[in-house]
Amino acid sequence: MEKMWTGRTDGKVNKAADDFNSSISFDSRMYRQDISGSLAHAAMLCHQGIITEEDYSRITEGLTSILSELDDGTLAIDRDCEDIHMFIEAALTARIGDSGKKLHTARSRNDQVALDLRLYLREKCDVIVNMLTELVRVICRKARSSSDAIMPGYTHLQRAQPVTFAHHIMAYAMMFSRDVTRIRDARARMNFSPLGSCALAGTTYNTDREMTARQLGFDGICENSIDGVSDRDYCIELLSALSLIMMHLSRFSEEIILWSSWEFRFVELDDAYTTGSSIMPQKKNSDMAELCRGKSGRVYGDLVSLLTMLKGLPLAYNKDMQEDKEAVFDGVDTVMACLEVFTPMIDTMRINRTAMLKAAQEGFINATDLADYIAKKGMPFRSAYKLVGQIVRYCIENNKVLEDMSIEEYRNFSPVFDEELYEDISLEACVAKRCSTGGTAPSSLERQIGYIQNLLGFSAAE
User: Fold this and answer.
1) What is the DSSP code string of 90-145?
2) Is 168 annotated in the active site?
3) Which of 25, 68, 261, 277 is catalytic?
4) 3-state secondary structure of 73
5) Which of 51, 66, 208, 292 has the lowest tally of Cβ within 10 angstroms?
6) pLDDT of 91-122, one tens digit each?
7) CATH number at 15-105
8) Is the pTM of this model over 0.90?
9) Is 240 a catalytic residue?
10) Domain ranges of the chain
11) Is CATH 1.10.10.10 correct for 359-456?
C-alpha cells in the first residue's frame, strides 16, 4: 500500500522499520473516535465553505458505512496500514475517490491522534467512575450488614484497639470515593479539543475550532496549537489516578489475603473468586486478590514509562509520543479488569464474626479504655498509662485478659477501681463509646455512608 506521505520520499520503507514505525496494532481500538472526529471535521469544513456540500455528503456517507462495517466485522482493519487514521482515510478514498482526499484539509495526524486519544480516554473515565461507584456501593452495603462485627484494629500489624469490621472497610470506601473524584478531575482537564491545531502552527484556512469542539462534547479548545499536539499531561494525570486506584486495590487485597488465611479466618472468599492447588487438596487460594495486588506494579510502570518518555522531548510532536498509547491503554485495561473481578469478590465475601471477636478478646485492645477509665477518676493520663502497662504485664504472666481479673486483683494495683470498670472495658462499650465523627461506633457509620452517598450521588436505597 502506498504511504499517504509519499512525495518528499518514495515511501519505500524497510519492512522491519515499517513494522517498527507502525501503531495500528494498538491504536486500531480508537476507530470509532477517529471516525467521530472526522465526521465533525467534515461538517466544519462544509460549514466554513472549505469543501462542498456534495463532498461533505459523500464523506459522511462513506465514513458512516465504514463505521458500520467495522462494528459488525464485515470490514477488517488492514494491519499493513501505518495507523488507524491512515487506514480509515485509505478506505474512505477507495470508496468515494477524490472527495475522500479532501477530508484531511486543515488538519494533521498530530491533532487527529491527540483528538482520538482524548475522546477514547474520556469514555473510559466514565466507565471507570461507574465501576468505582459500584465498588463503593458494595462496600457500603457490606458495612451496613456488619456494623456489629467487632474485630481488632491494627497499627504496625499489632492489635491496637477494637473497631468494627464495617468501620475498617469504610476506610476503603473513602479511598475509592476520592479515586472517583480524581478521575472526574482528570476527565475535566482532558476535555478540551486539540482539533484544528494541525501539525503545530494552526492553519491558513478559515476554520471554526469551537464548532468541532461543541459537536464532540468538549468544554472548549486547546488555546495554543503547539500545546494541542504535544500535550500528554492528561495521560499522565489519568495514569497517576489509576495508579492510586491500584494502590488502594492492592492494600485491600493484602488485607483480604491475610484475613482469609487460617491464621486469621476473618473472612472467606466465595469459591468463584479463589483457586485450588494442583498438589495440596486442602488449599483455597485468594488468587484474584493476589493478582490485583500484583498488577499494581504494572500500572505504576505505565505511569513511569510515560513520564520518562516525555521528560526530555522538545516541542512540538515527536514520534516518541507514539509510546503514550500502549502505556495508557494498558493502565486503563488493567484497572478495569481488576475492578470487574474485585467488586463481586467483595460482594460475595463472607465474614466470620466469631473469629474476629475472639482475636479482639485476646489482644488487650481495651487497654486504652482502661487507662481512660483511670484518668477519669482523676489520675493523670500518663500515670494511668503506666499503671495499665503493669496490669497488662501481670495478665500476660498469669495467662489472663483484662476482663478476667477480679476487682481485688485490680485494687492490688490501685484503689481507684470499682465494679463499673468491667462495663467500661467491654469490647462492645469500647466500640460504642467512640462515637466522635468518623469514629468506629455504629452510630457513626450512617454519617460516613451518607457522606459518600452525597459525594458520589447515589441514594441510601442503593
Assistant:
1) HHHHHHHTHHHHTTTTT--HHHHHHHHHHHHHHHHHHHHHHHHHHHHHHHHHHHHT
2) no
3) 277
4) coil
5) 208
6) 999 999 999 999 999 999 999 999 999 999 99
7) 1.10.275.10
8) yes
9) no
10) 15-105, 110-205+218-354, 359-456
11) no
